[in-house]
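HOLO CASE FILE
Compound: magnesium ion
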Amino acid sequence: MNNSDNSPLEFEQNLVTVASGKGGVGKTWFATTLCHALSQRGKKALLFDCDFGLANIDIQLGLIPEHDLGQVISNEIALEQAIYPKSKSGLSFDVISGQSGSGALASLKIDRLIDMGARICNLAQHYDYTILDLGAGVENSVMTLARASDKVIVVITADPTSLTDAYAFIKLHNMRNNDADIEIVVNMAEDQNEGRRAFEKIQKVCQNFLNISPTLLGIINRDKHVANAIRAQLPLLSRYPQSIAGGNVIEIAKKL
Ligand SMILES: Nc1ncnc2c1ncn2[C@@H]1O[C@H](COP(=O)(O)OP(=O)(O)OP(=O)(O)O)[C@@H](O)[C@H]1O
Ligand SMILES: [Mg+2]
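Model generated. Tokens follow.
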């Protein structure tokens, strides 16, 4: 894997980052459900809340973790100690929670971010899959952490602002890592045709202007069960195992 400016980050095959550019497209829900689907396939999986601004995986899952990433950043605990193990949560995967609204996390200096990326890579070696949920936007913290992983899944919707923000993310990520493995997930599609059209738009603009061709990992239908499961603070695949969106994510987990 090419690492264009010689940063010390190591690329990890089993570290998968979920990003988007635009906020609110379903990254956190998708990262959580993907992790759950992988664990149901017998994989040892870790869900890592790397949203340094508005972390909320624990809210979506109804967890009350003893530790979070904020304590790791302030050197109170080691990264491993921040793991909320599946044996305690009753989930089928481990979780590291972020710390919502923490200025300390959001303003981490670049060397600390690179160090955090390296520590995440080390931790990922103990799992079949580690899924990183990144924050929205294209700030330094987001872009630096995105470089820690081998594979980046960019979640988009058919909304034009989602496409432009996702393009901005892909462009910056590609500039820093010109060998990037970028795959697209279209979320909240009214149907598979709408999802495919949205994917083709982003693929075309990447081909024309960046000379890269992201691939389609999957299309997830808009499904009211998603919001209902989040409101119940339960994983979708536990609350509504037969839901359409859940089935879409199971298919994506198979393809990974
Ligand atoms: N497939 C779907 N069908 C219907 N609603 C969905 C779907 N995916 C996500 N949502 C809705 O979108 C909302 C936002 O999801 P989520 O918090 O995962 O987005 P996000 O990209 O992580 O946001 P942020 O950028 O703020 O971190 C959720 O509350 C959920 O109700
Ligand atoms: Mg989120």
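CASE NOTES: The two ends are 18 Å apart (CA to CA). Residues 27-28, 51, 133 surround magnesium ion (ligand 2) (CB under 6 Å).
CLOSED: yes
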